[in-house]
Fold these 2 entries.
Entry 1:
Amino acid sequence: MSIFGNLGGMLGDFIEQHGGAEAMAQNALQQAGGVQGIVGKLQGAGYGEQVQSWLGAGPNQPVTADGIAQAIGHGKLGEMAQHYGVQPDQLSGLLAKVLPGLVDRLSPGGTLEPHLGQNAQAPSSPRDPAS
């Protein structure tokens, strides 16, 4: 098996131990400011067209691992990766893979639905009645 196969297997094992790719991505997103935080960072980094495709109807445009790293910041990404015991490029690749579908599911009406994204730390809507 090649070194890339070994790394892929190790990352797969790690992800399984942490509840799956989406669970790991959601935990990482919490550290990066929640789903709305990372969406805002991606828009600010020039990835607004991709983000809009996730929010709207139709196919989701991809974002690259480099785009994720640029939006989160290499320092923060490094801290997050260290927390999970993976390389920063592995974490940014995972986030790039999972984030478009996650945002798409959290935005059925074209805007992020905070009550659906609480596990990903989406802030509550000002329209929600106080309990």
Entry 2:
Amino acid sequence: MHAADAVLRAIGSRWTVPWTAETILQVMLLWEAAFWFVGSWMVPFAAHMAGFSKKYLTFRWQALFSLVTDVTVGLDVIAILHRCLSQFHPLPSDWFKFSLRGKWLFDVALGCLCFLSSTGYHSSTSTCCPLCLLLL
């Protein structure tokens, strides 16, 4: 209970959402599946079918491959969010207030932490997938 109180003090007031834990779980599982399937299987397979081999790519081509993977997964996640959350549209106009004042630094730090964890997850899934390593 002390941890929940500390989080509420850091965030401020409670933020209520119109969706339930089921919707959150659905989005999280679909995101994980899309991240793994598209980022670790589909994009490497498409690169292999196009004739690219990772061992022959320069650093710039590897960076471009990584960018294409990230953009593709990002578009998938946007589609997942749109599909799962569109039933709650439109939200009230004051539902998401943005201001440079306040405790936004906590939100930025949390976003950076989420980015690092998703990057680590991608690294671990790409090393666990032997077929993906063969394709590249």
